[in-house]
Amino acid sequence: MTPTEARVASFYDAIASGGQLMVKDINFWRREFGLLTENQPRNFFDLGCGDGREVRLCREVWGSLDGYYGLDLSAGMLKYVKSFAPEAKLIRARLGELPFANASLPVVWAAASYLHVDRDQITGALEELFRVMAVKGHGFISLKTAPQNPDYNQNLVTYYELAEFGRYLREAGFDVTCKISDPQRDPRGVTWLGFFFTKPEQSTS
Known about the structure:
By secondary structure, the protein is an alpha/beta fold. Helix content is about 30%, strand content about 25%. It contains 6 helices and 7 strands; from the N terminus they run ααβαβαββαβαββ. The chain has a 7-stranded mixed β-sheet, sandwiched between helices. Strand 1, helix 3 and strand 2 (about 70) form a beta-alpha-beta unit. The longest helix is centred in the first third of the chain and has 15 residues, at about 5-15.
């Protein structure tokens, strides 16, 4: 782990073990979830599953977690998710070193996870994502811009601008198909950014 990753894991382990978890609104990214998964294989790779919001959403929408795979850096968060979703397939791993074969993931979801990657590490992490994404695979990543008010985990977050992160995705080899900047979604004064992207057909890695 990088020093930042160690701090992130420790921070979320403490939240999980300290009983500080709150059930999040599973509708927060429901529209984006629907757009990403429509007409796609039901093999959903949740990179940064955290406290399991999308686990709950997948179960509600699909009726089961048969195609769900969750990855997180925090062992505490994975243990928490396992407590209410024992059938979920969960993996502890780093975004910079994904435990998947080349071109193997058809649908990738990463809500508020790549924002925990240091800026000087983000190029390598996205190149690693490109490696494991299936050709013509689809993905969604969400991040934040710098908030108006103090953020509860701000010392562990890298904030981006829309054009900046879109450039990182394109430089990694992805086609960015849609970008979102939404200052209204979160009442805490956070502007959320969202990126839909695909791995081009001509890619062979």
